[in-house]
Amino acid sequence: MDWRDTGILLTVRRHGEAAAIIDVFTESHGRHAGVVPGGAGRRLSPLLQPGAQLDVSWRARLEDHIGTYTVEPQRSRAAAALSGRLALAGLNAVTALLAFTLPEREVHPALYARTEPLLDLLGNDDLWPLAYLRWELALLEELGFGLDLTACAVTGATEGLAYVSPRTGRAVSRAGAGDWADRLLPLPPILRGEGDAGDAEIAEAFRTTGHFLEHRVAPALGNKPLPEARARFVDLFSRRSARS
Amino acid sequence: MAVADPIEELIALMAKLPGLGPRSARRAVLHLIRKRSLLLHPLADAMQVVAETARECLNCGNVGTADICDICANEARENGELCVVEDVADLWAMERSGVFKGRYHVLGGTLSALDSVGPEDLGIPRLMDRVTTEAISEVILALNATVDGQTTAHYIADQLEGRVRLTSLAQGVPIGGELDYLDDGTISAAMRARKDL
Asked: Looking at the complex, does the CB of residue B178 fall below 8 Å from at least one CB of chain A?
């Protein structure tokens, strides 16, 4: 069994003295693990940093073996990620969420197509949080927990939408919410692709997407807690938005 | 019950050491036996002493033969500057360079959600205490230039923000490095950190 693909490095674990087991989110083979002989060595370890874009060749005797990877770096994103606190926290959030949510060897071409440009934006702290929010919405969609924000779930109205139902992920208008408003999640215009995308609005939108990641996605994956990396990124971003 | 051959047992143990495999362990053991008085006895004695006395410094996490390591106990070293490193091997590397005369703090790893390594596992609360009790004015975060290393550095920086001066090691072209052989990440970091000549 062998194939060649391009992918984003998600995690690296040392294996024995010099090898590493890497987890790569590939374009045509999904999240796929493999052993890299010499991956923990002096030559390869600087290249095998999470977020790196790799050209990978996978080979195994049987399909269900972990197999070995031969890796060729296409571009490193470590320098952009290490250049700032927000960028690094963002990279950790993306790689941790992908490793946490995606089943192994299940292909997600649409999500892959959104992840690569998102990571290429790392270091651009003005654009990145909004791009990351859009990516989280795409991740929820891909996992089957997409938000339906087109019309009010109660009245069917398409105007005056102000909340999201924490149970169904559907929009709710101000009129439709009534006395239940304080139990609903905020629906800032930016979640519908409207508004000026201010930091405070993006931070509010993270509260809504975070709810579905934490209370819908995580329990569906065996009730493991959501990776802390996402909370760290949101916390850092919220502090930045509070300062500005 | 068959009694294990002590020589074979020694070879098997040596083969577990980093950098050694069964063949090289066999060669090393044979060499030790041939140089019995010159190497084997002194090595056995030294290992015996280290096995009985080696311990982690209660203050900084360095490895020594007393509860407080030589660096922490050395009154000639400067107070006020604390260099945070990931591992004892990093501390030894810093000491080899001889450029730092202050105190150290060894974390013993990096934060890792994957391996469930949290701040308590790394003794970060102890680091916070030291900053207060030892009147530290500067914390140098000498952590590896990896995603995990820098994530840990930023976490510590968040905890200490506003309390002390925080610095980190520079990143860029190594001494003797040729641009042609450097990866693009290192070149980008070096460009960002360029300085006036």
From this structure: no
Tokens matching residue A137: 């919405």
Tell me which amino acid residue A133 is.
L
Interface test with A, best of B120, B151, B160, B194 (most A CBs within 10 A): B151
| pLDDT of chain B, 197 residues: tens digit per residue | 555 799 999 999 999 998 899 999 999 999 999 999 999 999 999 999 999 999 999 999 999 999 999 999 999 999 999 999 999 999 999 999 999 999 999 999 998 866 777 788 888 889 999 999 998 999 999 999 899 999 999 999 999 989 999 999 988 898 888 899 887 778 888 888 888 98
Q: Which of B112, B141, B154, B166 to mutate to test the interface with A (most CBs of A within 10 A)?
A: B154
Q: Which CATH superfamily is domain B4-53 in?
A: RecR Domain 1 (1.10.8.420)
pTM: 0.86
* Residue of chain A whose alpha carbon sits nearest to that of B18: A17
Between CA A62 and CA A60 the distance in angstroms is 5
Q: Which CATH class is domain A2-76?
A: mainly beta
- A229–B147 C-beta distance less than 8 A: no
| Residue A201 near residue A190 (C-beta atoms within 8 A) | yes
Question: At the topology level of CATH, where does B63-196 sit?
Answer: Dna Topoisomerase Vi A Subunit; Chain: A, domain 2 (3.40.1360)
Q: How far apart (Å, rounded) are the C-alpha atoms in residues A113 and A67?
A: 25
Q: Which of A88, A201, A208, A209 is nearest to A139 (CA)?
A: A209
- DSSP codes joined into one string, A173-219: EHHHHGGGGGGSEE--GGGGT-S---HHHHHHHHHHHHHHIIIIIHH
Do the chains contact at A46 and B183, CB–CB below 8 Å? yes
CB A10 within 8 A of CB A101: no
* Fold observed for domain A80-149+187-243: de novo design (two linked rop proteins) (1.20.1440)
Collapsing DSSP to helix, strand or coil, B113 comes out as coil
Taking an 8 Å cut-off on Cβ atoms, the answer to whether A91 and B147 are in contact is yes
Every domain range in chain B assigned CATH 3.40.1360.10 = 63-196
Q: Look at the block and give the residue holding tokens 């280290």.
A: B50
Interface of A to B at Cβ within 8 Å reads 11, 13, 17, 45-47, 49-51, 73, 75-83, 85, 88-89, 91-92, 96, 99, 227-229, 232
